[in-house]
């Protein structure tokens, strides 16, 4: 069983490089944006060098998990690939875990490249606390991979995966703290920013740094992202269908449970 799992994992990992769409979303787009945005933003705002590494790494996570991960899941389901897996006894847990693991492996490769090259190319400042940065990355990857997986499971077609992924991706870019600090937002938008996983990931990165500015308690952000990931994975496992022809009917609104921890975070911030 473990040999079959590792073989499938290796195949999926290679697909992430051979498939043109996945190559674009896992590597070319994040790296292209990294070079372009870093050159522009550090020239316009030299203080961006302090947050460049975390921002670009979390951008990579968003791109790979929310835009790259869902579409192959829908394609495999609609083309009958998962049905053949079921016939051959492949458990659905393996089917869901393998694309998540391979996606996180791809993002980790890009993240390491950014951490190494950003100080050399753009005079970026390395994270003051490496452990909090690593924790923020892991929590961000776990939460966003769960959301990407859930989008792939509930989306009726590949067009819907784009719309659902962009519903999280675009707000994260605008108010999630990646391009400019979330604490600089107007109060109302600052509260809404707590709906963005990237905001909580940056809180974790800054939470154990002397003088780090937070928009939410760092320990709370760890719990929020963990809860989002756990609920998203659980919901995806429950809502998963082997093919598009013989669906087991579940209420897709169950998927909204994954957003509950983010809503609770806003409520707590108002107290």
Percent in helix: over 70%
Largest sheet: none
Beta-strand share of residues? under 5%
Spatial gap, N to C terminus: 50 Å
What is the structural class?
Answer: mainly alpha
Q: What is the H-and-E element order?
A: HHHHHHHHHHHH
How many structurally independent domains?
1
The total strand number stands at 0
Mean pLDDT: 91
Shape: globular
* Low confidence ranges: none
Evaluate the radius of gyration. 19 Å
Describe this structure as you would to a colleague.
With about 270 residues, the protein is mainly alpha-helical. The protein has one domain (about 1-270). Helices cover about 75% and strands about 0% of the residues. The chain has helices at about 1-20, 20-45, 50-70, 70-80, 80-85, 90-120, 130-155, 160-175, 185-190, 195-205, 220-240, 260-270. Helix 1 (about 1-20) packs across helix 2 (about 20-45) and helix 1 packs across helix 6 (about 90-120).
Topology:
Layout: H1 2-18, H2 20-44, H3 52-68, H4 70-78, H5 81-87, H6 92-122, H7 130-154, H8 158-175, H9 187-192, H10 197-207, H11 218-239, H12 260-270
Labels describing this entry:
mainly alpha; 271 residues; 12 helices
Task: Describe the structure in brief.
This protein has 271 residues and is mostly helical. It has helices at 2-18, 20-44, 52-68, 70-78, 81-87, 92-122, 130-154, 158-175, 187-192, 197-207, 218-239, 260-270.
């Amino acid at each position: 069983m473990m040999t079959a799992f590792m073989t499938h994992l290796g195949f999926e990992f290679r697909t992430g490089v051979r498939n043109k769409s996945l190559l674009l979303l896992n590597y070319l787009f994040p790296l292209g944006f990294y070079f372009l945005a870093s050159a522009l933003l550090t020239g316009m705002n030299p203080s961006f060098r302090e947050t460049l590494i975390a921002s670009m790494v979390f951008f990579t996570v968003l791109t790979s998990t929310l835009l790259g991960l869902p579409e192959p899941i829908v394609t495999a389901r609609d083309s009958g690939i998962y049905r053949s897996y079921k016939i051959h006894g492949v458990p659905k847990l393996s089917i869901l875990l393998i694309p998540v693991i391979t996606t996180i492996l791809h993002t980790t490769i890009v993240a390491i490249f950014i951490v190494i090259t950003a100080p050399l190319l753009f005079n970026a400042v390395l994270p003051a606390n490496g452990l909090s940065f690593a924790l923020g990355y892991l929590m961000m990857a776990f939460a966003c991979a769960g959301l990407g997986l859930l989008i792939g499971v509930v989306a009726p077609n590949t067009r819907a995966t784009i719309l659902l992924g962009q519903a999280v991706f675009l707000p994260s870019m605008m108010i999630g703290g990646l391009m400019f600090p979330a604490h600089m937002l107007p109060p109302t938008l600052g509260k809404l920013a707590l709906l963005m996983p990237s905001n909580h990931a940056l809180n974790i990165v800054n939470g154990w740094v002397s003088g780090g500015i937070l928009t939410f308690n760092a320990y709370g952000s760890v719990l929020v992202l963990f809860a989002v990931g756990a609920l998203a994975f659980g919901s995806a496992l429950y809502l998963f269908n082997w093919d598009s022809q013989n669906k087991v009917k579940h209420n897709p609104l169950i998927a909204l449970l994954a957003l509950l921890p983010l809503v609770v975070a806003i409520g707590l911030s108002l107290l």
